[in-house]
Amino acid sequence: MNSIFRRLSKRSIHPLYKNNPNIHKIFLHRSLSSINSNKILTSSSQTSSHSKEPASNFKLKLLLLTLGLAPFLTKSFSPAPECQDPSQNNQNPSENSSKTPHPSIPRTEQIYESLGKSTPNFYVSSTFDLHNMIQEEKLTMKKELEEASEEEIRRLGSMSDKQIESMKGVGEKENELVKKGGLMYRNITVLEKGMLKNNMKVQISICDPDDPDSYQPMNKVLIFNRDGKYYCTGSYCGYDFTDLNDGIFIGNKIICPTCSSAYNIENGLADIGPTLRNITSFPIQVRQKDVNLIVPDHIPAFSMRETLEREDIDPRVYIIIGDSEAALSAVITLRYSFTGRIIVLPTSSSGAFENKEIFPRKFGPLNKAEVFLVEPDLFQKAKVDVISASILKIDHDNMTVHFSNDEKVEFDGILFAGSATKDVPSKFSNVYTISDYETHATVHNEVIKAKNVCVFGGTFEAYQQAISIRNYLNMIKLEDVKITLFERDTNEFIRTVGPEVGNRIINEFKKHKISVLRNIDVTHTEGDHKLKAIYFKHKGFQKEYFIAPDVCINEGELKEVDHKYHNTIFFDKPKWRPTVDDYGAFKIDRNFSIMIGFVQRGMLACGQNALHRSFLGNGTVRTPNTGYNVQAGYIAALLMLHKTIKFEHLPLQRMTIGDKELYYYGERMNHFDDAIIEGDLNSDKFICYYLRNDIVCGILTFGYVNLHLYLMEAMKRLMMPCGQEIRLQKDCYKSIVDKVMKNSSEFICTKQFELAKKSQIMMVRGSDVERYSKFRTQLKSNVQEKRKKEAEERQMQKEMQDRKMKEEIDKRKIEFVQKKKDEIIKKMKE
């Protein structure tokens, strides 16, 4: 096993990031107990134990271990490329270059090309239907393997002689092999039927301890027992690759502890964002007292996305303006139940379709799976048209869009889902705003050479950026670098968590050698092309100070939107003209309509370029939180399809301070009346409840791993006690967790029901009735035209078959005549 960890630790730094001799990777080898129930985990509650089970030839053993690795995205049953030998990734450069992003997407293709051959090709084009294979083989697999000879085993799969010898005498409870579609599957007995109790989960790692070369750290799965039925899914979150074993299993979903993404344990589908990837699911068979798992030879982390194919019958057209996380979520949601035409207009000058939330949270080198929210060929598979032209005019009354390339498109719905910038560009060369993958790599390369680093901003992202830089520098043995956090503009973080908790977090920052400067006024700066010094003084004092930074990073609030299209929208009635704020963001209602008070859902907006209505009475909300915007894009897409769905979602903010996790669930800048702190504020663990009118409007946990998930579910289901009960009761969180677990059957995934919900078209004006009548007429015409084409194709196929049959008959007649002729000639000669 030591050779395995030595081999896995040889991971190269990404080409865009300069290598530092002190950079090294630390892999934590953690083992878990065999049965893992829903426990409230803290940062210090993890124990380790090593398996000492004796080994045997080619017999699969269950190693209950956890490796803190972030795997690459895999789309089919194939080995994880991050775990492969780096030398194998460069053998076929043509295969790596065959999968490229859509040519119309700006800068995404350039980023992929700049990665070079050293980046593994983790997008695999092979597909396979596991469930159909199981239905075909479950009746014959047992008999074939019991009666298989050496030749039959060779026929089932291309195995080495050593593997064939080890297969002799192996029973069905230990290992069953079958090859289908070029892939090897195994039927493995993982545990006894009564070993896993009801509503509990267990994580196992499936590997062969006798063959280190075949070991894959991604070969981990989660097995669930819900109401006597067993389910199996992958173990990694599709958003930030967190181990889902630390999450909670409640109802029919498993919730990620770091990003709160929820997955359906029955099929692995993502129910709640921010994730846009589905985890894999595998069938389980119960044979007498044993629970058998059917898995491929190498277990993938994520499953392929199943979307509908575009059809010419549906005449509807939906246009999505933007390339943010909300736009991607809307595209994926539409393709689940919509077969018409989808048009996407990228608006970002940089960072198109990238996960910008990862940049302040992880300062070290990133891989493509962490940066990009979805696979680069998503639009090609979903048959989405990408237009790079700009918009000249949007005619709402005629429902048409005029592009700069003289193209005119009639639409049934349009969604504004663009992104926004945080700061204006600076004139200094050493002042950066991390907006995309390349600037993140540039800042990384500058920081590892700097002595003084300054972070400007008072947002959650600014605090997370400062602490992530410190964590990374400590890992690469650069503890002497000074980090200063300047709070400027609005102090969003302190106003959100409160002064008491804010001072406690600032003290925690001081322990990690981060200086936080609050209530300061920058008097002037020094430098021409490079910022050499910043002069400032505290408010209320006259003494002036200065600091000479080597690198400065801006992490402010959302400001200007990428493109201001509100000036291109024309209405027949001026009163329906949308309203925007000073930065160009649309003001929308609860139905995401930019025409507030109008029930027609033809023009919607969501994401970073929209001001959402607050659920807690805080006015409007505009946040860069990916989970919030992904959920908003999902609901907006359903509303475009005329499905009545309510948007009820609160963002989750996460901050990692050393080895402790801070989670805040609620809206930023929350105007609370009182804050109740449960536990010692100066300890390593405490909880804070934020109240308004004696009702909990926000929660914060510090030092816990998954407690916030129970509190979140309690807030969603209105199970949270009032402020007076929290004050009188000691350790109130325990009663909340018990209440959630008792009602766990109510916490079920709802996405599949929302997607199957029927549309309800609302016709208010006479033009709506005319448009709907035109839609029905065109739909009938398209159906008739398609039936006519299908009939013509069937007729052509029939004529072709008749022609082939006639040719075959004529050929046989000629052969028969020629044969008889030869026989007659032969007899005449005789």
TrEMBL record:
InterPro entries: FAD-oxidoreductase/Apoptosis, FAD/NAD-bd_sf, FAD/NAD-binding_dom, FAD/NAD-linked_Rdtase_dimer_sf, Rieske_2Fe-2S, Rieske_2Fe-2S_sf
Annotated region described as Disordered, given as residue ranges: 78-106, 783-807
Family from the record: Belongs to the FAD-dependent oxidoreductase family.
Keyword set, alphabetical order: 2Fe-2S, Coiled coil, FAD, Flavoprotein, Iron, Iron-sulfur, Metal-binding, Oxidoreductase
Coiled coil: 131-162
Name of one Pfam family that matches: Pyr_redox_2
Source organism, top-level taxon: Eukaryota
Any one cellular-component term (Gene Ontology): cytoplasm
Species of the source: Euplotes crassus
Cofactor: FAD
Domain Rieske, chain residue ranges per copy: 221-293
PANTHER family for this protein: APOPTOSIS-INDUCING FACTOR 1, RIESKE DOMAIN-CONTAINING PROTEIN-RELATED
Bias (Low complexity) ranges: 86-98
Protein name: Rieske domain-containing protein
SUPFAM superfamilies associated with the record: FAD/NAD(P)-binding domain (SSF51905), FAD/NAD-linked reductases, dimerisation (C-terminal) domain (SSF55424), ISP domain (SSF50022)
GO MF, one annotated term: metal ion binding
